[in-house]
Amino acid sequence: MYRFLLSRRWVGFAVFVLVLAAICAWLGNWQFQRLDSRKDHNALVEKHFKVAPVALATFTAVDKPLSAGDEWTRISARGSYDVAHQYIVKYKTRDEGPGVNVVTPLIMPDGNAILVDRGWFQTAANAAAVTDVPPPPSGTVEISGWMRVNNGADRDAVTPHDGEVRAISSIGAARTVGYDLYDGYVNLRKQTPPSQTPLAPEPMPDMGQGPHFFYALQWFFFGLLALFGWFYFARVEAKETTEREARSTVGATRDGATPG
What's the pLDDT tens digit per position in 192-214? Predict the structure, then answer.
């Protein structure tokens, strides 16, 4: 009944289905791995948020690269803002509308500095240059916030041009200042004294698990569906083959019968 499975067409079909099912299984496992990574990331962020801010100089060194595990650590620092090297991050749209983020280096007493994302404010929905950037407090300030790793965008996107960038990176900003920058930057959360015109801080990080679990189930379902489809079509083919053979046998019997 199932001798047809040894034909070239059905062997090729079986190989195709097995490869497809294997790919679906790999993609499903990959989604579960992404889910595990997301859970680990969330657990790390929650751990950082439970710890009081640590002094920047105690947490890291100016010549030390940040790791992914360092991100979202709460830090504190003291210094004065360098408005001369301040720039904006374009195209930062929120629910309120289009806007920009303002990044200002904070120079500390030892002469080193850290980029500070002071927050967001709304701008007009056009390509005009932003000239009304709220200034930071003058003199010495104390800040606290979250450490962030550099954006991995290309050089042109992170290097300030005419006071504007598309992404934040201390590597890009270091090319335009005359002092050493700590790796990464800070999302400002608190500041003393406060700015006369406060900026909207960056929102809390997304602590959800994302769609990875359901995506994994979908890929496993597609793989099982492919296997089921092969067996289903094989069964249909076997049934049709049996019926054809039965009709052929009946026809041959009738043709070979002699009248009495």
Answer: 999 988 899 998 888 888 899 99
